[in-house]
Amino acid sequence: MNREMLGAVIRKDLRLWFKNRFLAVITIAALFGYAGIYYLLPSQIDETLEIGVFAPAIASALSAPLEEEGVILEQYASEAALKEAVTEGEVPVGVSFPGDLLAALALGERPTVDIYLSADLPQEFSDLYPILVEEWIALMAGTSMPVEFNEEILGPDMAGSLTPTRDRMLPLLAVFVLMVEVLGLASLISEEITTGTIKAILITPLSTEGLFTAKGIFGVGLAFVQVTLLMLVTGGLIKQPILILLILLMGAVMVTGIAFLMASASKDMMSVMWKGMLAMLILAIPAMNVLLPGLTTDWIKIIPSFYLVDAVHQVINFDASWGAVWSNVLILAAFAGVFLALGILALRRQFR
Amino acid sequence: MSLRRTGVLLWKELTKGSRSFIFILALVVPVLISLLLALLFGTFFSDRAKLGIVDEGSSQIPARAANMEALLVSEFESESELKDAVARGAVDIGMVLPEGFDEQMAAREPAEVDGYIWGESGLDSRAILGTSILALFRDVAGYEPPVEIITTTLGEAQTLPWEDRLLPFIVLMTIMIGGMMIPATSLAQERQDRTLVALTTTPTTLGDVLTAKGIVGVLVASTMAVVTLALNRAFGGDAVLLIGALILGSIMAVTFGLLLGVMTKDTNSLFGTIKAMGLILYAPALIFMFPEIPQWIARLFPTYYIIRPVIEITQMGAGFEDVLPELIVLVLLIGGLIGITAFAAQRKAEATA
């Protein structure tokens, strides 16, 4: 395989790609766009329930046990101040306890508690707060239930430090970046097949293997550089950078194989588009599952991008190390090899 | 420009063009997304805490829990199924109610319940579920609530549920796929296949071609926008005004699509351009989704004037006078875009000649 010839084909593909300056500029603009989406989303998740309280006699008794459970009580000096805070949207809910609450409970009476709900509060929460208040008072009154709740936490306990949506979205953005570049590469190759450029290149001393190597390097390089840039600007390379880069490289190889397959089965850009959209939808499902947990069951593991998405998600959001994701990396490498081999076989048949 | 020739071209666009991928995409995507969102908002995007229950006996708790608005309740056949659902995050908390649990509660006898908590569930979901489960136990045990609760709603509602926040995005996407993509791709494809040159060497002018393609775009975009609103149960307010606003919005999308089709040399460049402009086109709808972002920013984007009147009419019951300022800007933008497109088409025609 002649290195100079390989380099010449790669340079030609790069020139074709960036010949259209607009296309070159917008490729970078799209990257900024994805990064923009990332930075527009909130960097933290608010897991607390904020409640305004007017409780002249029981303020401390109320707040101590609740704060550990993510309930923040804002104390107000009067019922009027509490009502104003709810009306103005400072707190979504206000609870006004009578001054003699504990004494009344001790006497076995049923005192009245006023709950003020903001009109913005969704209906489901409007129904919830009365239950919450009843339970707190039942606990204060000492009427505990004779039930032992044997709890087991499944998975890492993230309460209080949940992964922000934008970090859950990173694997999805990575899949999009990889797949969009696949569309470009597939349309480039399909155009070369249609116009006969590929056959013209093969008349030169460049072998078929050389051509595939050049196209492979170009495709993998293009996808890998873009997805790496995305990770770089979004902070995705802070934890385990070498591991992340390896996973992304495997992903880039896999999508290049998919691009070869699509190019071999497409006649023009439109044909590439619909096949590409279908592939993108399928490959995005595992990433959607990270964004919306519980969306799917174990069948998701048959989608090759699962191993890319899961590995990136584990490393970025759960500090997973090599030991935790090695099986993902191996399976992803196997998928990448299979897709690349299939893509080359399919394209080779086209050249004959 | 000849009406007869435009009519012939229009018929060709409708019969031949309707087999194209983008045409099908324009018809299918809005329907699919509407159905998908209806499914997602019923469960996955809901703010409600998710409770999973395995009932080993015949407890009343699953039925009572299902009646609680704050909870999304799922029942499972076995403990292993429940554990799997909790581990995947399909439910926040799962509990296994032993046989005879209700009877034990009623008799105030000690009972044990196995529970599973998804590690990634938030503190708020855990607090809501923990309290709700206790309330359910008390309910079954027949405990009287210790206090009488009086609830009062204060202020006026201002926030929008997610379904409503996403609606502008779906409607805008529907209008842009039908209005912008159909004429733009059709024009770029014709240029690539050189059929455009063939056509314009006959008495058919580029104006005839652009008009025919534009009419198809307006028809598809406005029809699908109406269908999308109906599917999302948002076709309300003044129907005539709404349809008028949708048609105007579709015309603007079409003029923009035609401009892109005229300016780009092939479908590759066209899709590259659309990919790059995606954020700018959809920015008003994205800004509408997040009330934390200052809403005036949306006014800086031309597509704001497509979507704002639609939202005002459907979600706020606005009348003609309320949406008139936006409609005036929209008409001005359409006029400007038609002028730029005509100029660009003229230059292209001269360059080709």
Number of helices of chain A: 13
Strand content of chain A: 5-15%
Mean pLDDT of chain B: 84
Number of domains of chain A: 2
Please indicate the count of domains of chain B: 2
Q: What is the straight-line distance between the termini of chain B? A: 19 Å
Counting H and I runs of at least 4 residues, what is the number of helices of chain B? 13
The percent range for helix content of chain A is 55-70%
Taking the alpha carbons of the first and last residues of chain A, their distance comes to 20 Å
The biggest sheet of chain B, with number of strands, parallel, antiparallel or mixed sense and barrel status, is: 4 strands, mixed
What topology, given as strand order, has the largest sheet of chain B? 2-1-3-4
- Element pattern of chain A in H and E: HHEHEHEHEHEHHHHHHH
Radius of gyration of chain A: 29 Å
User: SSE order of chain B in H/E notation?
Assistant: HHEHEHEHEHEHHHHHHH
Name the chain pair with the biggest interface and residue counts per chain: A-B, 93 and 91 residues
Q: What can you see in these coordinates?
A:
The complex is a heterodimer of chains A (352) and B (353). Chain A has 352 residues and is an alpha/beta fold. Chain A has helices at 3-19, 21-40, 59-67, 79-87, 101-106, 123-140, 165-195, 197-203, 208-233, 241-264, 269-291, 305-318, 322-351; strands spanning 49-54, 71-75, 93-96, 112-118, 147-154. Chain A has a four-stranded mixed sheet with strand order 2-1-3-4, with helices on both faces. Chain A is elongated, with a radius of gyration of 29 Å. Chain B folds into two domains: 3-40 and 159-352, no CATH class; 48-141, abc type-2 transporter like domain (abc type-2 transporter like fold, 3-Layer(aba) Sandwich). In chain B, 67% of the residues lie in helices and 9% in strands. Chain B has helices spanning 3-16, 21-42, 61-66, 79-88, 101-106, 123-141, 162-192, 195-201, 206-231, 239-263, 267-289, 304-316, 320-352; strands at residues 49-55, 71-75, 93-97, 111-118, 148-154. In chain B, strand 1 (49-55), helix 3 (61-66) and strand 2 form a beta-alpha-beta unit. Chain B is elongated, with a radius of gyration of 28 Å. The model of chain B has no long low-confidence stretch (mean pLDDT 84). Strand 4 (112-118) of chain A pairs parallel with strand 5 (148-154) of chain B.
